[in-house]
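Give me structure tokens for this 264-residue protein.
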Amino acid sequence: MKLSCQEGLAPGGSFAEKLKNLADYGFDGVELNGGQLEGAGLEERKAALKDSPVRASSICGGCPAELVHPDAGRRRKCADALKRMLDIAAEFGARGPITVPIFNSNDRIPDLSPYKSRGDLEKELLIRMLQDLAPYGEQRGVAVLLEPLNRYESNALSRVEDAAAICRAVGGTGVRVMADFFHMHIEQTNTPAAFEAIGDTIGHVHLADNTRKEPGTGDIDFKAGFAALKKIGFDGYMAFECGLSAPAAEALPRSVRYLRACLS
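Here you go.
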């Protein structure tokens, strides 16, 4: 398994400087900010990654989280943005773009009970949208990375098993689960067992302690989680998505050392 870090957490005046610092701190990858992947920002990242030992692991942001928005035009805009990010991920050799299908919002599919509940309709619509996107990603060797959020951030798709069921319903390898230790610490009763249950669908991992800061600042058992990931054969990237308890030059390398010890 490889350690990655969101580019926004890395210090540096340029993207190249951020990559150099991440390499010095012991990271293998960088999670790209999708909002920077246009024009000059895209070209800067292409140039810097060309000769860097740090590789692009994934893309976070840059797409509206509206695959199940009740407005068809906004759903299509989200799908088109994800296709663009799938193209960029393939170009960079990254796993794919991360998407959150539903945040807590008033912009929800209506409840049509007793015909179908809002939750049932949203799941069916999400599957239908992903059935279009997944083959597009699979043909390019990448995937849409579907992230469940905890109950305080989303009132749907909160557990990794829910996301895995969506992936299995869609079929193929063009949509995978993006599992986040922080959200899992809230929603799962047994994180290692949850990893084992979704082993056929997991594509990427986010790292944060229960403090929502860097691993090693709280009480999440990363050693047990990593052991379960090894057991299911996961060898992909795990990216820091968290706040920091100290300046990056102090907090990031300290957390990398902690995680390397957990991995070993």
